[in-house]
Amino acid sequence: MENLDSFSTDYLFYQSRKQMPFIERAQGVYIWDHTGKKYLDGSSGAVNCNIGHGNNRVANRLAEQARKAVFAYRTQFENEPAHRYAAELVTYLAPHLQRVFFVSSGSEAVESAIKLCRQYFFNRGQKSRHQFISRTPSYHGSTLGALALTSYSPLEIPFRPMMKAYPKIPAPYCYRCQYHKKTKCNLECAWALERAIVEQGPESIAGFIAEPIGGASTGAVVPPRDYFGVIEHICKKYGIFLILDEVMTGFGRTGKLFAYEHWDVDADIVVMSKGITAGYYPLGAIAARTEYVDEMMDNGGFSHGHTLAGNPMGCAVGLEVLNVITENRLSENAAAMGKLLKAGLERLKKRFQFIGQVRGQGLLTAIELVQERKTREPFPAEQNIHFLLTDEAYDEGLIIYPRRPINGLKGDHVLVAPPLISTRKEIKELLALLERALERTEAKLPA
Ligand code: PLP
């Protein structure tokens, strides 16, 4: 291994809070750093490396496409990987979602969804429909348009005022219900959408966007069973787009190829990225209702695009990753391993009083950390317990994904979301590492 001690890291900046070790190599569910230390990737990177690391089949397809043609500009050439991939992808989507638009990231995909809705209404002479309603907390990306739909204060505050501060309704977060309901709730958080539409004026609303299962925002919160039924009913009643942001939940993560399959809900647009290429190449996409796109195409097309949109590399990798997921039944594996993982997390909850809740679906799980389980009293935000646990896990050789309390909602959580290729043995190993990290955290908890 090259000696990296004298290597300057001054020239590159991120959001990161501290200097991390260099990644040396990665294989399956494991990562090695430049000192030779091994980690179990319990967060699949940023919950995107769904098929695990070092997949030769995808690496070979990437190299093969790079040698053949790395780029085709859409006004100059059609490219086969993009058409092939779109045609294959729609076979796994709802029958009314048969039109695909490619971009390079989740944020760009959310931007594309926003612009598609706005152009659709513009073409129909309904220019006033420019607003979007989203939820708080939520995460839909970091570009300014996507950030305006996001409700994740640490990432938003420096950029206020937003391009437009769109209205937000409470996310379904039953453990800390924003309506303080204890038992029967009547889905107030879903009906809040109708109240927001009426308050804003229905003629001003273009769409509503939601993560089907909370990702970085609420942390693997699964909505009540009938939540999306109510949401869909309201969107239909007011003629607005229902946009499901499957950037984190898509491509098998929750035990189905797309999380919306857990309920009987018809989205008008599904937003995808992350697992779409599992980290092997930047790619994002939206799939939209066929008749809406066709109407727009008859009206001169979509006034939107990026240089790398639908490039052959990303699409070749996307198709190969999709084949890896479906041929190896990774969604089914995520469902089975998710059950094992959740059962193990519940066992850890019995042992560690500072685990308040275990939640999630498939291999998108989380634990919420509390000072007092009975009252759900959170740790004071400044104690950063989510970082303490994540750091202890890191020292043990386990990577998990922390989240601080946001948007006035109290409570730290960490996401536990290993690659969908995880075996029983690897899930058990993850749980053993997490148990040691929890022991070390418990010993350091403020008295
Ligand atoms: N939407 C959701 C639900 C996400 O989880 C993310 C990223 O975490 C995004 C959008 C933004 O994706 P990207 O970071 O690729 O821009």
From TrEMBL:
It holds the Pfam family Aminotran_3. CDD domains: OAT_like (cd00610). Keywords: Aminotransferase, Pyridoxal phosphate, Transferase. SUPFAM superfamilies: PLP-dependent transferases. Signal peptide: none annotated. GO terms for molecular function: transaminase activity. The keyword Membrane does not apply. Its cofactor is pyridoxal 5'-phosphate. InterPro entries: Aminotrans_3, Aminotrans_3_PPA_site, PyrdxlP-dep_Trfase, PyrdxlP-dep_Trfase_major, PyrdxlP-dep_Trfase_small. It comes from the Bacteria. Belongs to the class-III pyridoxal-phosphate-dependent aminotransferase family. This is Aspartate aminotransferase family protein. It comes from Desulfuromonas versatilis.
